[in-house]
Amino acid sequence: MHIDTKIRSMAAFLGMTAIILGAFGAHALKKVLPIEQLNTFEVGVKYQMYHALFLLFIGFTDAIQESLKQKVFWFTSLGVFLFSGSIYLLATDSLNEINFKTIGFVTPIGGLLLIVSWGMLLFHFLTKKV
Prior knowledge:
Elements: H1 3-27, H2 35-60, H3 66-91, H4 106-127
Helix pairs in contact: 1-2, 1-3, 2-3, 3-4
């Protein structure tokens, strides 16, 4: 599968699941979670959607070479999984018997991966000879 197709597919998947999770939070979780936890859950949804759109841009632009696209794709995908995924688990921790607070350390790791992906793009644009 070509890298652009892979990136666009991930963007569509992340966007679709962000909408599903957002609706789930707004309707089902609203009945069982306090507002603080709902707000936390919503942060995960927002960051997932932001990065779905980010990947969509990456997948459709010709201004970035394939090797950089590949790196941004992996850093962003893993970053969303760790950042938003851990936020979803932490925000809903009170709904199950599993204590997800022990995995809280992965949230900033995911955030760092997202920052690195944006940083690679910034570095590329600042150093690109036009």
